[in-house]
TrEMBL record:
One of its GO terms (molecular function) is hydrolase activity. Keywords: Hydrolase, Metal-binding. It comes from Stratiformator vulcanicus. This is GTP cyclohydrolase 1 type 2 homolog. Residues 152-161 have a biased composition (Polar residues). InterPro entries: DUF34/NIF3, DUF34/NIF3_sf. The keyword Hydrolase applies. A divalent metal cation binds at H65, H66, D104, H255, E259. Homohexamer.
Length: 292
């Protein structure tokens, strides 16, 4: 049977740690790399409910998008719900791995998956990561002329695949859609009846930016690439005001909805790579925010 280390290597291929944000905490966070893996459970966030599901299902590895250790952890005790959860997993021998922003930005990662759902062409990173460095470089196109010229750029086959090296994604709708048609496409792609959005000051949508999760900071990058809309999970009220003032559309899918589907896909990818194991997505997990 494959080991935790084998699964880790596969996950590092899908979501290279070198493209994770420098503030992030990705990789194997709990467990023995040499332990055998028969069952894998994927989830967006490791909660006590998901941990209980993993122990009950005798999972050997949990792949959680959001890390369990983010800020400096000074103690792990049963006096907190997170501490009790981690100790329960450790006693049961369950390892924990988090790909987080490396999966957001990976060549087959969340932002690319959203671009595919929306039918975008010529998909590229919003923020480029130079091959010799892991530091993301924000887009810097300023003049409208340069920005519009970028619409007609063709990809040089001799260059590195731009989908490989960068955070966020943007792409082209070909042909462009009227705003109401584009919004309908988003709703169909995510199986929802309504959208929270800041309307764009445009009649046609020809270029769309994507940054899953909480990513309002990509608004300026989307503007620099002449995108009419930025699709993200959530952002601040002031970012919404900034978008409206700039005439840029902003779609807020919700943090959970913008990322959770990709953990189902990750389980499928691991099943394909390791057909001898069981890799499934959590059934206990749900969006904490509901509508009524």
């Amino acid at each position: 049977m494959p080991t935790v280390h084998d699964l880790r290597r596969a996950l590092e291929t899908i979501a290279p740690p070198t493209i994770a944000e420098d503030w992030d905490n990705v990789g194997l966070l709990l467990g023995d790399p040499e332990a055998e893996v028969n069952r894998v459970l994927t989830c967006l966030t490791l909660t006590p409910d998901v941990a209980a599901e993993a122990v009950e299902d005798e999972a050997d590895l949990i792949v959680t998008h959001h890390p369990i250790f983010f800020r400096g952890t000074k103690r792990i005790t049963t006096e907190t719900s997170d501490g009790a959860m981690i100790l329960k997993l450790a006693r049961a021998g369950v390892a924990v791995y988090s790909p987080h922003t490396s999966y957001d930005s990976g060549p087959a990662g969340i932002n690319r998956q959203i671009a595919n759902r929306l039918g975008l062409d010529d998909v590229r990173p919003l923020r480029v990561i130079e091959p010799a460095s892991t530091q993301a470089r924000s887009a810097s196109k300023g003049p409208t002329e340069e920005c519009r010229a970028d619409l007609n750029e063709s990809t040089n086959e001799n260059q590195s695949d731009p989908a490989e090296l960068g955070a966020g994604r943007y792409g082209v709708l070909n042909p462009p859609l009227e705003v109401h048609e584009f919004l309908r496409r988003v709703k169909v792609a995510f199986g929802i009846d309504s959208l929270r959005h800041v309307p764009a000051d445009t009649e046609l949508v020809g270029r769309v930016a994507i940054a899953c999760g909480s990513a309002g900071e990509f608004l300026s990058d989307a503007s620099a690439h002449c995108c009419q809309y930025l699709l993200t999970g959530e952002t601040s009220f002031h970012t919404c005001l900034e978008a409206r003032a700039a005439g840029m559309g902003l779609i807020l899918l919700g943090h959970y909805r913008s990322e959770r589907f990709a953990m189902d896909r990750l389980a499928e990818m691991l099943s394909g790579e390791f057909p001898e194991i069981s890799a499934t997505s959590s059934h206990a997990e749900s969006d904490p925010i509901t509508r009524s």
